[in-house]
Amino acid sequence: MADLIIDEVALEPIQLIAPDGHPTPHHGLDPTSVVDRLPAMYRAMVATRGVDEEMVNLQRQGQLALYPPCAGQEAAQVGCATALRDTDWLFPQYRELGAFLVRGIDPGGVGLSWRGTWNGGLGFVERCVAPICIAIGTNTLHAVGAAMASTWLGDGGVTVAFIGDGGTSEGDVHEALNLAAVQQAPCIVFVQNNGWAISTPTHDQYRAPSLAHRAIGYGMPGVRVDGNDVAACHMVVAEAAERARRGDGPTLVEAVTYRMGPHTTSDDPTRYRSEGEVATWRALDPITRCEAFLRHVGAWDDTLAEEAASHAADLRRSLRDAVYDAPDGPATEVFEHVFAEPTPELLRQRDELAAELEREG
Amino acid sequence: MTMVQAIGAALHDAMAADDRVVVFGEDVGRQGGVFRVTDGLQGTYGEQRCFDTPLAESGIVGAAIGMALRGFRPVPEIQFDGFTYPAFDQVATHLAKYRSRTRGLVRMPVTIRVPSFGAIGSPEHHSESTETYWAHTAGLKVVVPSTPADAYSLLRDSIECDDPVMFLEPKRRYWAKEDVDRAARREPIGTAVVRRPGDTVTVVTYGGLVGVALEAATLAAEEHGWDVEVVDLRSLVPLDIDTVAASVARTGRCVVLHEGPRTLGMGAEIAARLQEEVFWDLEAPILRATGFDTPYPPTRLEGDWLPGVDRLLDTVERSLSYDHA
Ligand SMILES: Cc1ncc(C[n+]2csc(CCOP(=O)(O)OP(=O)(O)O)c2C)c(N)n1
């Protein structure tokens, strides 16, 4: 494996595919070396884009209470998740639909959380993905603890914490990075720097040359990667995972990307950002870039586009089916999962609520 | 004006009246807050007096402590109730204790505004009742307005107060409308108000549930002929137990209504205090209609989980079923 991750933190993001689809070899590394893996990544990105769109539609129809769109960030999420083993634990924030789909999580499981019938995500932990984490920054420490546990268990596992540019300002994230470095935990802190934390631009969030530069202070490698280049994201994370598995400790990866849509469906980005900015990034779309590269190296096949589109359509349909008219579940169920065994007081309160609901019919 | 506008007006007027007042937090500047409460403040008062902070709640409160130490009157916002937990350390460890630690030499005129409580269909950590954490922390005042006019007046008082105030804004009342007279201040922090007089039973509540209690009282009068008195606490610390006790002494019955979990909630404290004050006047045990001892439920279940008109009326009926005659 070529050295993408070096001791010095470079400001220029690692890029293997230029926006027009031409390869831009880096340190002698050529994206053609992953060309056989790119169709699968392309397919996952198209699926993510489609399901994401469907989630927004469902929210507009009142089927979901809220949804944080991820359009624009597919390459970062898919490139990262496809570089890992299925047994490596992921600790998402809430915008990582691409990583969820790579893990084979049913889109309905994600949709029902946003519908508000579950907190956290259904079908996640079964696939070594921690529940959706709304309290920003808190998940990074879990990733470090789980990575330490992997070392003790000797299972060769790597953990990935997903965090945003805003989230890196939380105290917990500093504690996580420091602990990971001190423990040499097999952990990757994967920052999706999408330019904005709700309305707060990166300039008001941090003044380091880059978020990857923070790694220096913690004593771990930091690397900036073009977050709209799926090959680069994939190879950087693959190398970080390999380092972690070898016992060489954590890596801070900053994927430079852009949140194309609003922060969530209740946010109005026209209040704080310009159309011009959005247009600039629209031209850097990660999916068209991947396609352009495959065409350039002669690995494109029209059936890939058709097959990816029909897979995305299937997932969209399964999401709609799962969400439409999904029952809310009995309210008394909230008492079942407070403790392993409900306390007598909880049982009393459950019966009270049951009786109340029955009286109200 | 709406409660959102009333709170915004209070911030505007406080900043105009005293240039030591500074407003900051996540998205409060450029965007005017996720609920638009702070809309226009940055434009009017500039970026030193109203600014966006990095995403860091412990940092927001910790920095407010330093500013207060140097004579400013910080009014930070924590974006949602569930995100006060990362700030808990700074509030409990330092903010609440600075005055007693310095034997009164240092004041902490910090007002932490928190959009609070549930019933607006939000995801996890956006609907929590945190009031008892604060009420249990000595050195903090805890204010929960229920109407736009009270929100205006109580926020002005809180900002002028030399002690730290947790100002918990009931999100479900954000769009409630009322005329607000910005020239007139109403009763100061620490005074409860009887929102509806009655002589059958006293319902004690605060914040978003005041509206629920009033609705239930109207229904109770129409359907059962019960005359429910509704007391709005407005501030939990200091607690105006005198107003509550006077009411309960008259009606002989009391139901406490709150959204937060029942165990060790405000109802527990009020019941204990009333029992000490008006034991001989009680016709029935003091009862509680509350949320349950579970994590706040997912959106689609909150309507069943939260105490509403029905749970309150059931509890009132239970209170009335104690009959010593
Ligand atoms: C501890 C905490 N504080 C505040 C919030 C409210 N909030 C939700 S998302 C967000 C901005 C997050 O930005 P960033 O970390 O850059 O991630 P992005 O949403 O851009 O993916 C804020 C302030 C929260 N969820 N958790």
UniProtKB/TrEMBL annotation, chain A:
GO terms for molecular function: magnesium ion binding; oxidoreductase activity, acting on the aldehyde or oxo group of donors, disulfide as acceptor. InterPro entries: Alpha-ketoacid_DH_E1_comp (IPR050771), DH_E1 (IPR001017), PdhA/BkdA (IPR017596), THDP-binding (IPR029061). Gene3D superfamilies: 3.40.50.970. Keywords: Oxidoreductase, Pyruvate, Thiamine pyrophosphate. CDD domains: TPP_E1_PDC_ADC_BCADC (cd02000). Residues 42-330 form the Dehydrogenase E1 component domain. GO terms for biological process: branched-chain amino acid catabolic process. It holds the Pfam family E1_dh. Its cofactor is thiamine diphosphate. NCBIfam families: PDH_E1_alph_x. This is Pyruvate dehydrogenase (Acetyl-transferring) E1 component subunit alpha.
From TrEMBL, chain B:
InterPro entries: THDP-binding, Transketo_C/PFOR_II, Transketolase-like_Pyr-bd, Transketolase_C. Its EC number is 1.2.4.4. Coiled coil: none annotated. GO terms for molecular function: branched-chain 2-oxo acid dehydrogenase activity; magnesium ion binding. Keywords: Oxidoreductase. The keyword Oxidoreductase applies. Gene3D superfamilies: 3.40.50.920, 3.40.50.970. One of its GO terms (biological process) is branched-chain amino acid catabolic process. This is 3-methyl-2-oxobutanoate dehydrogenase (2-methylpropanoyl-transferring). It comes from Actinomarinicola tropica.
